Amino acid sequence: MSAVSIYAEASPNPESMKFVLNQNLLVDGVSVDYPNLEAAANSPVAQELFGFDYVGRVFIAQNFVTVTKTQPELAWTQIIPELRQFLKSYVEAGGPLFTVDPAAEQKAAQAATAGDPTQQDGQIAQKVIDLLDNYVRPAVEQDGGNITFKSYHEGIVTVNLQGSCSGCPSATVTLKSGIENLLKRMVPEVQSVVAEGITV
């Protein structure tokens, strides 16, 4: 196993910090968001992170982990070294990241929630998914979060915001002025975009 290097990168959410690794943790396009310890049953590494009393949320994507803290008074400068050292040691030791492959889990969840859209709704949903994947998700990942498509029904697109986006003060503005405008412009059938996962 090669040496793991990790650097911390601030996100637009002052309570979230992105820890970027020089190794992949997940395949591109797959991410997991754990808003609490109970949700992290599938991830031993996330469970260990919740062992730090200031960790309130853990988000894992292709090559980074975003940690959201619960104590605003605690400065990142005090806790970054501890978290970085923990992640470095854990990954270098080959500690288990997941008990079930999140890619398989995600496919099963999408199949379960897909329902039976009309053919036209299905085509519109596919256009929206392509736009989110190609234009929106890379930018959101830069900020330590992720956006996933949930549903399209009668002009309304529902998305799920994860990681640093979930508690970010600017998430609603980004959603309405950025993502909604893009989708309305590219897919005329879209009337509005609503998000789950914003905890502001």
UniProtKB/TrEMBL annotation:
InterPro entries assigned: FSCA_dom_sf, Nfu/NifU_N, Nfu/NifU_N_sf, NFU1-like, NIF_FeS_clus_asmbl_NifU_C
SMART domains: Nfu_N (SM00932)
Pfam families referenced in this protein's UniProt entry, alphabetically: Nfu_N (PF08712), NifU (PF01106)
SUPFAM superfamilies with a match to the protein in the record: Fe-S cluster assembly (FSCA) domain-like, Hypothetical protein SAV1430
Membrane-spanning parts: none
Domain Scaffold protein Nfu/NifU N-terminal span(s) in chain numbering: 6-94
Family under the similarity heading: Belongs to the NifU family.
Record protein name field: NifU family protein
UniProt organism field: Hymenobacter glaciei
Lineage: Bacteria, Pseudomonadati, Bacteroidota, Cytophagia, Cytophagales
